[in-house]
Structure formats: C-alpha cells, structure tokens
Specification:
By secondary structure, the chain is an all-alpha fold. It contains 12 helices and no strands. The structure holds zinc ion (2 copies).
Length: 258
C-alpha cells in the first residue's frame, strides 16, 4: 500500500464534486505551504536555507502578503534572501567590472570586428552571468518546488490506486475530468508510472471523460452568453450562473477569482 499521507488527501479530493480533483489537492497543499512558510518553517534552519536560496515567486509572495499573517516573519525571510542575492549579484558584477572599462575604451574598429566575428567579449560574459543569475531568481520558489514534488507523489498514488483499487477506479471514472494543466500532467506522467497496456487503458478512459466534460463546460458558457439575449430572459439558468469562473478554472486550473 502506498504511504497513507498521500492516499488520504487523494481519496478526499476525489470525493469532492469539482471541475478538477487535482486542483482541489493543489489548493489545499498550497494553503498549507503558505501557512507553514509563515509559521513553523521560520524556526527550521533547513527551511531558512531553502527560502534564502529559492525565495518565492510572484504568486506566492502575493499570497503570503495578502494573508496578512506574520508580517515580521515574511520580512525576516525577505531580509536574508536579499542579503544573499544582493551579495551574489554584486560579486558577479565586481569580478568583471574591470573588463567593462576595457571594453568601453576599445576602439571603434575593435567594436565592429567583435560584432562581426561574434566573438564573446568580457562584457558579453558579464551579461550572460547576470542574466543567468536573474533567471534563477525569477524561476525559483520554495513553495512551487514543494508543490511540484508533492503533486508528483499524489499522481503516483492516483495511478497506483487506479490499477489496484476497483473502488477508486469507479470514483475516478465518474469524475468531471480535470483542468487542462492537470490533464497534461496526468498524460505526461503515464510514461513514468504505467506500462504500455495501462497507459492505453488509462488514456482512453481519461480522454473520453475529459472531452465529454470540456463540451459540457463549453455549452454552459455558451448558455451564459445566451442568457444576455432578451429572447432567453425567462429560460432557466441551469448550471450556467457560475460558468465563467468554472470555465476559466477548467482552462487554467486554480485562479484567484474574486
Ligand atoms: Zn487542475
Ligand atoms: Zn511559487
């Protein structure tokens, strides 16, 4: 049996009536990560090292700030993160600052010949290192890393249960499909966890379910737009009242729609 810490949240999420059980899992996990980052993690030296190294992406900075919880804790993490990154950028810059002066003074002819020969100048090297470091900062996030890792564990458990627990398979097959982001993640993950026959069985079931439900959501949005036509004034809304938010979620996954 797969570890319980992953199977219980998976079973709970699949018990919910929703557009994407993986979004339910991800949202719960994300909320827990935000709470943890602003709470117990501040006292964990390993976690502080990780937040100093990876920092947070825009979404997770926003989520932590907007939660209004522990502003001091957030400030402490930002403080040490900035100390580390400022030092790094400064070091890269200072190591090559001398070459900048040299390249700046290079004659016009040399500048032209460098452009033509596309030889990498010292200035190019500095730019490459700075952009590389900024890329790292832009694309790393403590919470995103944790989400990626744990969502991978959940998907492993989903495949395991699907082929070993008939009850779970029945529930899975009765769902409304997934958001496109998580549909892709499931399809990509078959390669890692399933053999050829299992992949074929799973993909057939998943795509049948997905296409039916994408059509359903599309029709619900369509009906929403028709309800703005006076001829449909008295017609019932059906499931279309919240079709706009649900369709956005079906396309993009969890969104912070107000
Ligand atoms: Zn999703
Ligand atoms: Zn993030």
């Amino acid at each position: 049996m797969k570890e319980k810490i992953y199977t219980i949240p998976v079973s709970d999420a699949f018990a919910e009536d929703c557009e994407c059980p993986l979004c339910v899992l991800e949202k719960k996990l994300e909320d827990e990560c935000i709470e943890y980052a602003l709470g117990p993690s501040l006292m964990e030296p390993d976690m502080r090292q990780e937040t100093n190294e990876k920092g947070f992406c825009k979404d997770h900075f926003e989520a932590m700030f907007n939660s209004q919880a522990n502003r001091l804790g957030l400030a402490l993490m930002i403080d040490t993160f900035m100390q580390e990154k400022n030092k790094k950028l400064q070091k890269i810059f200072e190591t090559r600052a001398g070459s900048l002066e040299k390249d700046a003074k290079a004659g016009l002819m040399k500048n032209i010949s460098n452009k033509i020969s596309s030889k990498q100048t010292e200035t190019d090297k500095l730019l490459q290192e700075l952009v590389g470091e900024l890329d790292k900062i832009e694309h790393s996030c403590t919470i995103c890393s944790k989400l990626e890792h744990t969502m991978g564990r959940y998907i492993d458990v989903i495949f395991y249960l699907y082929f070993r627990e008939p009850d779970f398979r029945e529930i899975f097959d009765s769902k409304k499909g997934f958001c496109l982001k998580h549909l892709k993640q499931l399809l990509v993950s078959t390669k890692k966890y399933l053999n050829t026959s299992e992949t074929a069985i799973f993909t057939k079931k998943l795509m049948d379910m997905q296409i039916t439900n994408l059509e359903r959501v599309e029709k619900e949005v369509d009906w929403f737009t028709k309800k703005f036509d006076y001829r449909y004034n008295d017609a019932p809304w059906g499931n279309s009242k919240d079709a706009v938010s649900r369709s956005i979620q079906k396309i993009r996954g969890n969104c912070n729609l107000k």
